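hi! just following up on the protien thing from before. the input was this:
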Amino acid sequence: MSAPNVNVEVQKTGSESSLSLLRRFSKRVQSSGVLTKKRSLRYKTRNQSTLRKKTATLKFLDRMAEREKLAKLGKLPVEKKRGRR
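and the predicted 3d structure came back as:
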């Protein structure tokens, strides 16, 4: 999905300074929403396939079952406390 191509154009009027022209152009680009759309898509990741989700869930369930088994036998490794000292 790509952002729509929007050409933003401003014309310099009479005695307008370059700085005010640049400011007006920046406002026009910002209001068009092209940059915000592109930035939002920058780090987008694909959705996982259903097969991959299933295998990950099965692995997780296997690990949880093994952990429960070890907990019942009293063989769980000692966890270090995290947080403040």
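The chain has two domains: 1-44, 47-75.
The first helix runs from residue 18 to 32.
cheers
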